[in-house]
Amino acid sequence: VQLQASGGGLVQAGGSLRLSCATSGFSFDDYAIAWFRQIPGKVREGISCITIPSNGVPWYEDSVKGRFTISRESDKNTVYLQMNTLEPEDTAVYYCAADEGRCSFLRSAYRFWGKGTLVTVSS
Question: Measured at the alpha carbon of residue 37, what is the angle toward residues 88 and 75, in degrees to the nearest 5?
Answer without folding.
Answer: 115
